[in-house]
Amino acid sequence: MAEAYIVDALRSPTGKRKGGLSHVHAIDLGAHVLKALVARNPIPAHEYDDVIFGCVDTIGSQAGDIARTSWLAADLPLNVPGTTVDRQCGSSQQALHFAAQAVMSGTQDVVAVGGVQTMTQIPISSAMLAGQPLGFADPFSGSKGWQARFGDQPVNQFYAAQRIADHWGVSRAQMEAFALESHRRALAAIAGGLFTRETVPLEGVWYDETPRETTLEKMASLESVGAEYPSITAAVSSQTCDASAALLVVSEAALKRYGLTPRARIHHISVRGDDPIWHLTAPIEATRHALKKAGMTMADIDRVEINEAFASVVMAWAKELDYDPARTNANGGAIALGHPLGATGARLMTTLLHELERTGGRYGLQTMCEGGGQANVTIIERL
């Protein structure tokens, strides 16, 4: 089978809710990273085969196939198409998978992939699913098939995060310590300039706005999100934010044609499902499945990026996979850096690639929990 290569990866800074990027139109937020991606690489813009973007809640400023509209808003050629993917939180990771599959199949040679989300402009209203927008009803209400299979069991991220914490014996205090470390790592990475190469400033925002100087005492003082979720607070949950990210995926033929230097080879891609009521546990079995398919173990993996939707999700995954916490989200995760739904997958991969390059690691693994009890896994080999 043909190989797929990552040639470039970049992202906007993460703008906090109602922060420095909150006024930027979603299309322009997506256009920003696409324009930078094309400008940084010697491929004529009209020779791109496709643009594949992740986005959750394709309504309002995010409607109208934002992959296509962002490309056009970047003043790039009319002949290049675009398509938008929604696999909930894993949308832009799935966009990367679709691009890799297109290249591996030989049907495309040059694909821009990524994602965008403006959570200030289109906020989520509940914990049922990623991107359940304000003003919309329970998506399961009235479905006879869903009720017949799952009854009235809650499809709720807070419920799932608490259930995971209880099942894996993770206390609120342990989750708060985990969250504090996420902020510490992110602040250290910013101070050390570790994100400089991967970040393309926008609208006067040069650095991620979301990491906080906080303390365990402050975290302990917060109220839980509900009486039925006593361990789940804002402190141990990912932050809503505004951001975009993009990567360039090409074939071996494109490498030769344009004189490109590959930065990573896509070694493995897969996606698995799990119980939608548990909702957030799929990364555990999806990682095991991916390692088996790839003929690898966690000992082969030099760095992991797993989305910190909630602290309990990552802590349960780490317990099951027995992986070194120091090599997991080494520069902080979504608790500190935010979770811009449709853009998070591309943001994680961008950071993973740069971290492998910084440390000299060979293999990196990315995974994340997704609405409906799903998880994508991507393994890349740094070249």
Quick overview of this protein structure:
This protein has 383 residues and is an alpha/beta fold.
Output the keywords.
single chain, 383 residues, alpha/beta, 10-stranded mixed sheet, 12 helices, 10 strands, globular, acyltransferase, Acetyl-CoA C-acetyltransferase, Thiolase_CS, acetyl-CoA C-acetyltransferase activity, EC 2.3.1.9
Characterise this structure:
- This protein is of the alpha/beta class and 383 residues long.
- It has 12 helices and 10 strands.
- It has helices at 26-40, 66-73, 91-105, 144-150, 157-167, 172-191, 216-220, 252-258, 282-294, 311-321, 334-337, 341-359; strands at 4-11, 15-16, 50-54, 82-85, 110-118, 241-251, 264-273, 303-306, 363-370, 374-382.
- Strands 1, 2, 3, 4, 5, 6, 7, 8, 9 and 10 form a 10-stranded mixed beta sheet that branches.
- Helix 2 (66-73) links the parallel strand 3 (50-54) and strand 4 (82-85).
- The radius of gyration is 19 Å and the shape is globular.
